[in-house]
Amino acid sequence: MVGLKEELLKSIWHAFTALDLDRSGKVLSHNLCTVLNVPHDPVALEEHFRDDDEGPVSNQGYMPYLNKFILEKVQGNFDKVEFNRMCWTLCAKKNLSKSPLLISDEDAFKVWVIFNFLSEDKYPLIIVPEEIEYLLKKITEAMGAGWQQEQFDHYKIALNTSREGLSAWELIDLIGSGKFSKGMDRQTVSMAINEVFNELILDVLKQGYMLKKGHKRKNWMERWFVLKPNIISYYVSEDLKDKKGDIILDGNCCVEALPDKDGKKCLFLIKCLDKTFEISASDKKKKQEWIQAIQSTVNLLRAGSPPPHKEARQKRKELRQKLLAEQEELERQMKELQAANENKQKELETVRKQLEAAAARAAEEEKKRLQTQVELQDRFSLELEREKLVRQKMEEQVAQKSSELEQYLQRVRELEEMYKQLQEALEDEKQARQDEETVRKLQARLLEEESAKRAELEKWHLQQQQTIQMTEAEKQELENQRMMKEQALQVAMEQLKQLELERKEALEQYEEVKKKLETAANNTKSWKDKVAHHEGLIRLIEPGSKNPHLITNWGPAAFTEAELEQRQRSWKGKKATSE
């Protein structure tokens, strides 16, 4: 009853605010009692509207009477449309815009009723932009047009900069202006408004023509069915003038699909406690839509939930209240932060002053410290001069002793250097011989590879000559093979050239190693006299024989014939000893 009272109060508020400050409140009260089926109380009415200093028609004076003698007695057995139409009649003439609109007065009335349903529960009544968008979307969908979100966003921004929402009359002007229904005729807009009105105000969840099987005659008759949250009413036609019956819905009802029979298709069954109704839809799609709609309605009745559009409206309101509470909380926090920031600023100012005072004290202390430091520096300078004189005398004594020691150590270093240089010369000669052997092996490997490549080139040359002698039928195929072999031959020639270059580099390395060997031999000879003079125990390595060197395919040999024979005899002697 609280929700019903709030809905009634919105329409009554429009009618009440349209009255002049006279005794017209009596007219409103009489009309309300009539349309709401509430008994008249003439004594209470006259008592309340007696002429006094406070005035007969005021919110404070009239609302107590309205609540006590009218609204508390409402039972819900009244025509909501007739009630809204009465309130509309009292307020429309004074508030409705005189400019021509694209919608009729009947459509304006329906928009006004929808406004009361969607408006906020605070006075003066307004509809917020979110509910305006919801309503315009519903109307646009009912017209079968596309929703222009960008256009509404621009309108919403302009609206939010000036006010919180629209009044009922501004909403009627907005829809009647055709701003969001461009390209649609008056009839299409009117049908869309009527469809939204039926859904939101009359709680019509679904409606349409179907065939119903009679309970007595068992014949099939076409009826206009209207589904509401707890009832299905069926009429002769869609003008709703001749009502033929109702199907009362509750949580015990169920709906089932039936197979085709007796020439009827798209059948379904509605089971209630006392009756069962067989109905035939026009097609399978309509049948499925009606079954789903009825089943959803029964499920809502079982769960005790309100109709979907009312539940959605409540959720939107709760969401807006939550956002508003969050915004208020955010504003409160911002104020607290601002206050805390101001306190911090004051604290920072206090700290800054304290720092300035501390800096002044520190400057004074620094001045005293610098003065003390200058005095200490003067005293330390005198002591440092005395220390320098003492140190100078000690350095002269140390220098004399060091000179004697240096002469002794110089003699020792000369002998060590001579031994070291002799050892390095021997190592250089040994390394030169190893490098010569390495180069010789590299030359041998390069010659072997060169011989193999030459043999392969000769083989390819023979194969090429044999290929030329083949028959003309095979010539084309062999020509491709010849080209591939020529490419391989070219690659081999390049590799051969590379081997030639490597061989030349090896010869150059050999020459370089030979020069190193000669240099090492000369160094060994030059140190012979010095070593013999100091020790007399080391026999220097003498240069090799001056006999001509052997010449091989790779160049000059590493050893002479005499050296080779001497090595061979030494090897045979070691072999005989081991046996």
From TrEMBL:
<keyword id="KW-0597">Phosphoprotein</keyword>
<dbReference type="GO" id="GO:0030027">
    <property type="term" value="C:lamellipodium"/>
</dbReference>
<dbReference type="GO" id="GO:0005886">
    <property type="term" value="C:plasma membrane"/>
</dbReference>
<dbReference type="InterPro" id="IPR057836">
    <property type="entry name" value="EF-hand_SWAP70_N"/>
</dbReference>
<keyword id="KW-1003">Cell membrane</keyword>
<dbReference type="InterPro" id="IPR057837">
    <property type="entry name" value="PH_SWAP70"/>
</dbReference>
<dbReference type="InterPro" id="IPR001849">
    <property type="entry name" value="PH_domain"/>
</dbReference>
<dbReference type="GO" id="GO:0005737">
    <property type="term" value="C:cytoplasm"/>
</dbReference>
<dbReference type="InterPro" id="IPR011993">
    <property type="entry name" value="PH-like_dom_sf"/>
</dbReference>
<keyword id="KW-0966">Cell projection</keyword>
<dbReference type="GO" id="GO:0003677">
    <property type="term" value="F:DNA binding"/>
</dbReference>
<keyword id="KW-0539">Nucleus</keyword>
<feature type="coiled-coil region">
    <location>
        <begin position="309"/>
        <end position="530"/>
    </location>
</feature>
<keyword id="KW-0963">Cytoplasm</keyword>
<comment type="subunit">
    <text>The SWAP complex consists of NPM1, NCL, PARP1 and SWAP70.</text>
</comment>
<keyword id="KW-0472">Membrane</keyword>
<keyword id="KW-0175">Coiled coil</keyword>
<comment type="function">
    <text>Phosphatidylinositol 3,4,5-trisphosphate-dependent guanine nucleotide exchange factor (GEF) which, independently of RAS, transduces signals from tyrosine kinase receptors to RAC. It also mediates signaling of membrane ruffling. Regulates the actin cytoskeleton as an effector or adapter protein in response to agonist stimulated phosphatidylinositol (3,4)-bisphosphate production and cell protrusion.</text>
</comment>
<dbReference type="Pfam" id="PF00169">
    <property type="entry name" value="PH"/>
</dbReference>
<keyword id="KW-0238">DNA-binding</keyword>
<protein>
    <recommendedName>
        <fullName>Switch-associated protein 70</fullName>
    </recommendedName>
</protein>
<dbReference type="GO" id="GO:0005634">
    <property type="term" value="C:nucleus"/>
</dbReference>
<dbReference type="Pfam" id="PF25530">
    <property type="entry name" value="EF-hand_SWAP70_N"/>
</dbReference>
<feature type="domain" description="PH">
    <location>
        <begin position="203"/>
        <end position="299"/>
    </location>
</feature>
